[in-house]
Automatic annotation (TrEMBL):
Residues 109-176 form the COMM domain. Transmembrane segments: none annotated. PANTHER family: COMM DOMAIN-CONTAINING PROTEIN 4-8 FAMILY MEMBER (PTHR16231), COMM DOMAIN-CONTAINING PROTEIN 8 (PTHR16231:SF0). Pfam families: COMM_domain (PF07258), COMMD8_HN (PF22838). It comes from the Eukaryota. InterPro entries: COMM, COMMD4/6/7/8, COMMD8, COMMD8_HN. This is COMM domain containing 8.
Amino acid sequence: MMEILSRISATDCVRLCHRVVDGLCGREPPCRSDYSTTWSLEEWLQLLDFLTSLFRLAVGNDIPDEEVLAKLSDADHSHAEAVLSVLRARWEEIRRALLDRTSSISSATLQDFDWQLKLALSSDKISSLNTPLLSLCLDVRENGALRPITMELNREEVSTLISSLEAANKVVLQLK
């Protein structure tokens, strides 16, 4: 992938990388028409995707310079250093953009929770049920107001909830 980057000078590579970071941070991304004679549309899209993913991954996972350079091993030294110099210069800005994107998903925050484990022995339809149920009460603060959310979950729903929370935690840890 990075070998196609060598079609432009290292100086132009720095300029392109800054524009990619601009796009990642919500500003004007690089314009395809500026590079239409250099790369095909498919190459352009692959390059943008690679650079954007590299910047997100490097900042989100706090990857050291050596690992970033290893991911750029296909590029010649001057182009790899150009990408790395932009990454170093704009690290904090990329991190802020990633955090803003994550926090914009929801302004709600969990303030407190309480849970109870119940055993449903029967229902109006089944005389012998013996099903464990988790009663979960969440106190969520959204836009300054505290809102209680109560739910009752069976074993499968608890497993699904735990898996979802673990996945969300993994994403949050990647952004730190």
